[in-house]
Amino acid sequence: MQYAEPILRLIKALSTLPGIGEKTASRMTLFILNAKGGYAEELISSIKDVRDRVRRCSVCMGFSEKDPCRICADASRDAAVVCVVCDYRDMIALEAAGTYRGRYHILHGLLSPLKGIGPDDIRLGELVGRIRSDGAIKEIILATAFDAEGEATAHYLKKALNRFDLRLTRIASGVPVGGHIEYMDPSTLGRAMEGRREI
Amino acid sequence: MQYAEPILRLIKALSTLPGIGEKTASRMTLFILNAKGGYAEELISSIKDVRDRVRRCSVCMGFSEKDPCRICADASRDAAVVCVVCDYRDMIALEAAGTYRGRYHILHGLLSPLKGIGPDDIRLGELVGRIRSDGAIKEIILATAFDAEGEATAHYLKKALNRFDLRLTRIASGVPVGGHIEYMDPSTLGRAMEGRREI
User: Fold this and answer.
1) For a disulfide at B61, which of A97, A181, B31, B106, Cβ 3.0-4.6 Å?
2) Which of B6, B25, B9, B7 is nearest to B17 (CA)?
3) What is the pLDDT of residue A179?
4) What whole-number distance in Å separates Cα of residue A52 and Cα of residue B109?
């Protein structure tokens, strides 16, 4: 005795989603089966809508209903600075912080020799092409995580952008606001010390 | 700056699913946007399939492509015993255990005065109706959790089934196989003691 075939199929499709195991996927499937008020229809139509109406911005590789996206089309934003992020959600988080007024480039992943993710698997070529064709860009700010994949991507970019006349910077690593010194790991404290500034 | 409207709509639809918060829903949405190989289509078609092909078995209230479902239609299963569960997944788990040869009734919820879930919100009326019309039923086994909602449901059933000539039993509560005595909570140990048997 097992679930009926259509149930199994939906469980399988849902467990492909990141962070969703088989148990959660079967909970989700039974929720969809039990849900009232046209929930399944709303879900179907939302997925369709996202697939049909959202495209990739050809400048920054972000998602948008328009191409170029709102940020790339916004003349009031500083065209000289491009902040490079791993994921579209990172860009949303930086925008929510509200201090940055430059543009973005979304890599949709980071280099990972371990996972076999190379330069061609992420949007690195598009970044280099953009820098080559857009003379206004003077600084690239790398806003990636400080882990092995972030390091690998930083290392690669340093080499790939060497031939261009621009600043390559990286956001600061250190103790987060509200974080307690005693709970920080040694490498964070090491970086915080190294990156100390005059007050 | 926020996500585009279709993205926000899908995030909202996905965060309605049980156990899915807004962060996970936005991760899922971006995965769907990034996914290749017709993943969005497969997801849409699986949801449609589940909605169109899966129905409720009119006997046990479970989900099935046929009505009555395979178990209710199986003449080799003991029609005298009905095991009452909260959820369709509980039935699947009991079937996987492989020892039970009776039938099932799925309540699709448990009574919960705290959450405002009363007898009419779950499939209790269908159970009583089934017992009334099916003279073959001689035992009802309650296989619900041993928490406040399970207790409330057991208490209600004891009263509601009082007028019928049948045994009302409940699965055993105690130390699970592989569980360590030292880590068990006092109420489990209390129940395990209370339910002790000759060896």
Assistant:
1) B106
2) B25
3) 86
4) 37
A148 within some domain: yes
Q: Which residue of B has its CA nearest to A47?
A: B10
Same domain, A34 and A83: no
- How many domains does chain B divide into? 2
Same domain, A97 and A163: yes
* B87 and B46 in a common domain: no
Contacts of B30 in chain A (CB under 8 A): 63, 87-89
In a domain, A191, yes or no: no
ipTM score assigned to the predicted complex: 0.80
Domain range for A41 is 5-53
Question: Does residue A40 share a domain with residue A94?
Answer: no
% helix, strand, coil for chain B, step of 5: 45, 10, 45
Full-model pTM: 0.80
Q: With bands split at pLDDT 50, 70 and 90, how would you rate the model's confidence at B80? A: very high
Alpha carbon B194 to chain centroid, angstroms: 27
Rounded CA gap, A152 and B56, in Å?
Answer: 53
Q: In terms of domains, do A26 and A84 share one?
A: no
- Give the mean pLDDT of A53-68: 95
Question: Out of B3, B48, B95, whose CB is closest to A44?
Answer: B48
Same-domain check for residues B19 and B97: no
Domain-embedded: residue B178: no
Mean pLDDT of chain A: 93
Please tell me the predicted confidence (pLDDT) of residue A194: 86
Minimal CA–CA distance to A11: which of B23, B43, B22? B43
Minimal Cα–Cα distance from A196 to chain B, Å? 32
Sheet holding A103-106: strands in order across?
A: A103-106, A81-85, A139-142, A167-170
Q: Does A99 touch chain B (CB under 8 A)?
A: no
Do A86 and A19 fall into the same domain?
Answer: no
Would you place residue B52 in the very low, low, confident or very high pLDDT band (cuts 50, 70, 90)? very high
B60, part of any domain? no
- Angle B39-53/A39-53 helices, nearest 10 degrees? 160
Report how far residue A84's alpha carbon sits from residue A94's, in angstroms, rounded to the nearest whole number: 11
**Shared-domain flag, residues B101 and B142:** yes
